[in-house]
Specification:
The protein has three domains: 102 residues, no CATH class; 115 residues, Immunoglobulin-like, CATH 2.60.40; 130 residues, OmpA-like domain (60s Ribosomal Protein L30, Chain: A). It has 389 residues and is an alpha+beta fold. The strands form five sheets. It has a five-stranded antiparallel beta sheet, covered by helices on one side. A five-stranded mixed beta sheet has the order 6-10-7-14-13, with no helix packed on it. The chain has a four-stranded antiparallel beta sheet with strand order 9-8-11-12, with no helix packed on it. A hairpin with a 4-residue loop joins strand 8 and strand 9.
């Protein structure tokens, strides 16, 4: 049995930066679909997040709301004159996981205003993420006033900050929450937003948070849900009076470490990459360009060792489509796994990466993660990145 690989979405995170509100232009008049909020001192983070959205094809902009002193990142870089148009745009945006809590604001002379009934009261209720054991509610920003004592995750929002250690640049990541007593996954949190987290009621009262990002080693943090204030003695737990900030410094992968390309998939029985894989391929390319001495190995795997049809990229070198000149042959699962690793290498070389920096291997079904008849058998079909140096 040979399967395509699952796709997982990531979203970028923010770190701190000293700037002044005077450096940020006020947000333009009109209705805006807002997708993230930053403090007035985080102009750099707001700009980087907006630029990241633009690179992904989402037109965005940002500006200062002078009344509350927040910087809003909004999904459209133009204004809506009609509330109904803005609501339609917001509803469409919420269909995407990374914009599930988008909301509408009306701005006049740089300030959020009310027109009759407040604009916010006309919105649908905030969307809550479906999670296995605990519920995470994203909120626009933390309360303006300090939280009454004692502070803990039961009454105080959190903000998750993931950044690479060498230059504090933001890193796209998912943050998995585990029960440290049994290793059970409780939830996967999104970043760059304030959020409330319901009590998972673990036996010890503690939760473990693990930030995972492609090309980096995991960063872990363990805190007590109802005694979080005591955890501020840790370097990466900071209390700001109305919210906790959890910091996740990220180090690039070291020699010998491996990671699954969780967002790269292939057409069935093919060594041709699906278009939705491009974001992670671009992340791989960026990693190789930023680390010119890095060498990697790409390892392909299948679920089982069946023989069958294999579809290859044709002479046109269309890596992302079943083009008319595609080549079809019969072959083994090992040949399929090798071809899938090789096509990623070929794409990197086509982008300018030296061929001797990338190796491609295939193992067929000889190294399964799960029994081929188990519910998780599909995860055996995978492509992994291994850092050689």
């Amino acid at each position: 049995m040979r399967y395509a690989l699952p796709i997982v979405l990531f979203i970028s995170l923010a770190s701190s930066f000293n700037a002044t509100a005077n450096e940020v232009a006020p947000i333009a008049n009109g209705y805006h679909v807002v997708v993230a909020t930053f403090s007035a001192k985080q102009e750099k983070e707001a700009r980087q997040y907006s630029e990241a959205l633009n690179k992904k094809g989402f037109a965005s902009g940002y500006g200062l709301e002078k009344g509350k002193g927040f910087i809003y990142v909004f999904l459209q870089s133009f204004e809506f004159n009609q509330y109904s148009d803005a609501i339609k745009a917001m509803t469409e945006a919420r269909k995407k996981t990374e914009f599930a809590t988008a909301w509408v604001v009306k701005i006049k002379d740089g300030r959020e205003i009310k027109e009759g009934e407040p604009v916010e009261s006309k919105q649908p209720e905030p969307v809550k993420e479906a999670v296995p054991e605990i519920v995470t509610e994203y909120i626009p920003n933390p309360p303006a006033d300090p939280i009454p004592n004692p502070q803990h995750l039961g009454n105080t929002p959190i903000f998750l900050s993931v950044y690479r250690t060498r230059d504090n640049k933001n890193v796209d990541a998912d943050i998995n929450v585990y029960d440290p007593d049994n290793g059970k996954l409780l939830a996967t949190l999104k970043s760059n937003r304030y959020m409330n987290v319901s009590n998972p009621k673990t036996k010890s009262g503690r939760i473990q948070l693990v930030a995972s990002a492609f090309g980096y080693s995991d960063s872990k943090l363990e805190v007590d849900y109802l005694n979080t204030e005591k955890d501020t003695v840790k370097q990466n737990v900071v209390y700001f009076g109305s919210y906790f900030q959890f910091k996740f410094p990220m180090e690039k992968m070291k020699m010998g470490e491996q990671v699954v390309f969780s967002k790269i998939t292939f057409f069935n029985d093919a060594a041709i990459i699906t278009p939705g894989s491009k974001p992670q391929l671009m992340a791989l390319l960026e990693m190789m360009e930023e680390n010119p001495s890095m060498r990697i190995r790409i390892n392909g795997h299948t679920n089982g060792n069946d023989r069958g049809k294999i579809i290859y990229v044709g002479p046109s070198k269309n890596f992302f489509a079943l083009s008319a000149d595609r080549v079809e042959k019969n072959g083994s699962s090992k040949e399929l796994s090798t071809a899938r690793a090789q096509v990623i290498k070929d794409w990197l070389v086509a982008q300018g990466i030296a061929a001797d920096r990338v190796e491609a291997n295939g193992f067929g079904g000889s190294k399964p993660l799960f029994d081929k008849d188990s519910p998780n058998a599909r995860k055996n079909a995978r492509v992994e990145l291994e850092v050689l140096n």
